[in-house]
Give the backbone structure.
Amino acid sequence: MTTAQTLNAPTDRPSAPRKVAWASMVGTSLESFDFYVFAYFSAYFVGPLFFEPLGEIGGTALAFLTIAIAFVVRPVGAVIFGYMGDRLGRRTTLLWTIGIMGISTGLIGALPTYAQAGWLGAALLIVLRVAQGLSLGGEWGGSILIATEHASPVKRAFYAAIPQLGSPVGSILSAGLFIVMTVALPAEDLAAWGWRIPFLIALPLLAVSLYLRLSITETPVFRGVVAEGRRDRTPFVTMFRERPAALAIAVGAALLGIGSYSLMNTYTVNYGVTQLGFSFQDLLIATTVGGLLQLITIPLFGAWATRVGSARVVAWGALGTLLIAFPMYFLLQFATFPILVATMIVGGILPTMAWAALGGLMNDLFPDRFRYSALSFAYALAATVSGFVPIVTLQLGTATDFAWWHPGVILVMMSAVTLVAALVAARRATPAVVGATV
């Protein structure tokens, strides 16, 4: 109690909302960089480097499962860090989550491969993925809250979109790095030691993120909770008792925004190389173009959400994605680079609507005293489901002899769930105010 009250003392002048939002975005950029580095890494390198005896199909399947492992433990991390965020503060908790993520990612770059140490490297890889998953469980919810709870209620939908920029920034940085490496390094050097570079780069990026997060103050909303003695002793339990329906809505609303990234940036990269004949470099360029466009569209969708409501923006994004899913994957079969880029752009803009407004939608569903736990746990559950998207899509592709429509089935299912959840949220959600209850 004493420590939390000291950290959130009212004598500390609250940081400017813009400064906090951008500091939050840098942290989510590191999280996304770490995620995408491993996503690209698993799509191309994990199998042969760490699961060599299992062959191409077995190695690819295990590579995708290493992605899923981190997602499976995310709800555990959400419970741990959600409790910390609702009891000790948003800022303190985010320092822990970003620290664990950055260190774990850096250590992956130092792991021995199967050729160097047998199965030891694979075992350590799994341990570090568990650590990453735990930190991920508390990172996103805290980033959204530290941005929105410094802003006025009118502008919270916009500021909730700013941390979402971390996803395209992380994607651009990681894909750009891999593009440079594939050009600068022969394939033998890339497989021998070059793959370690992106992971080791996470360490200096961590130092920058920690510096920025140390420079901002605790949110005025949490300070108010502390000053009024409203901190919940068991926020996780209270969340289930008071808002079970809102929790289900939040999970469904998050599914497309998270799952589409797993489908496009992990499975589609592997599918494009192994089945459609694209080069790995072409796919990275296409995803980078899509990421650059998101730097413009995410703030625009956030601004739109302040006018029409976050839930409605999510709903439009889900509906649009549902309609273009099958045409998009049909066009990919023609395997030309312009079609690939166009597909990544169109397939990125519509799910981005659902992604950009997600934080605002979820923020509106829960009161402040257990909001960190609620956002973190709902997002973690959706992320856990999304973590299995690559392996499930791979199994569907294998069962259908990789029919052109098989990824579209998965994308349509996720879009439909998010569409229903967003429509329900639009009908019931009102902007959450301090101490609000149902």
Remarks:
- Residues 1-11, 431-438 have pLDDT under 50 and may be disordered.
